[in-house]
Amino acid sequence: LPAAEWYSLADRSPLAEETPLTAPPGFEEFVTLRSSRLLRAAYQLTHDWAQAEDLLQTAYAKAWRVWSRLSAEADPEPYLRKIMFNTYVTWWRRRWHGEEPTDSLPDQRHPDEYNRSHDRDQLWRALGRLPRRQRAIVVLRFFEDMTEAQVADVLDCSVGTVKSQISRALAKLRLDPSLLEEVAR
Amino acid sequence: MNVDDLVRAMHEHADRDAVPAPRQARIRSIERKVRAARRRRLMAASGAIAVVVALVLGLPHALSRQAAPLPATTPIKIINGYPEYARGGHLLTNAIGTFDQHLKMTVPAQTADVVVVVNCRPDVAVRRLAWFFDVAGKPFFTGDCARGDWVRVPAAAALNGTSFTVKFAFASADSGSHLERLDGTWSAAAYVMVPPSAYPFPPRPRHLPDLGLFTGLYMGPDTPVKYLRGTGDETMSYTFKAYGACHWQCLTVLTSAQTPGFLHIKINGVPYRDDGFYDYTAAVEGRENRDAELAIVKMQQVTVTVTAEGMTGQWEAAFVPYIVGSSGG
Questions:
Q1: With a CB-CB cutoff of 8 Å, which residues 179-208 of chain B face chain A?
Q2: pTM value surpassing 0.80
């Protein structure tokens, strides 16, 4: 077959890398308006802003495929949150597997007026040492201020599981060595 | 400390040091993830199809021949659906696109030959889907999607150390010479050929398969068949005079080899456009190639040279020149 005929077919287009994807209708507006709140929740899970952004973007990318159905519903945000939390809980095999906050702060006594803040810092770090599922449940229950039934709906588990996981998570926080040290001092 | 402290700790940290991404950067990142997800889905589908085809084609063949089991291959990483090492090359780049898009790549300086492999899937079913690519503006190759061609771009054409674009065109070839433009998706990969010593060949089996697949090959009274047989790394050549003319695909080359390595074939000093890579399957199945570009004029003297590289066992090559007036032309 003559090359000229192939060229008439081949020369019709721009380079692959320069072709932008067309976002579904309403998607970009949603990203602009709703990302702040979701990103804060993602940060509670990952304890790292870059990873939080990555988690949020991954949730958006998953939602992209079903956006037409999602946007037809009243508000896509609960579904986005559901994708994000479930992605976080099930994504432990990937890059975040090794992520463990460390106690790298200098071990110093603080003036009394700063002690409460320091304790909350320790509490925050202890939160980062919880297993992923427990951390997700704690964030949904106490940061997102959801009821136990709502948490169960997001994570597709029973209310009983949510209750037991919260109970275990709080127990672990109470027994976290760094917090026990604080109490001992 | 109590739950109130926990809630307060979470809100304090969420309000502190927040570095949200700019809106456009976030959208672009999401687009990249969407593209990557599509690529993974296509690669998974391509892989599944390849496995099914391999099973359908390979299983009866294997059962009928009852060939000796080949040694287990060295585990090779799979990157976006393509093995890190394949056909004697190391993965340079891979991409996915629609039929109206092209593959852009940068070849490292002073690199060896590049091999390009293309998989394509049209949006509508066609009997035969052909593809074409050019390298840096020069028409290079036409192939068939169903055949899964691996095309070697010689180092001289690969513009070492520069970026260039491989332009694709895909068309239904159902209606003979008429090309019909199609829509669909391709995935492509480029491999840089590496020396045999740097390639993760499978371990040598205890018993090597016998050669002789092409012995007794008869193509017709006016079509001579010439054999070259060697052992290990050696160079052999065969010269013939064409008593007729041939305009394209003038020479069929049949090859097999007991051990992995390369058989570099040159015709009148020009590299043959086959990647020349062999593993343990060649001795069992044999390989057949016809160079689309080779033309022979009447009374031309043609010299075929075979250079084995990295071979440790026996190899053989059979050459069948097709000249106008001879059978099989």
A1: 179, 181
A2: no
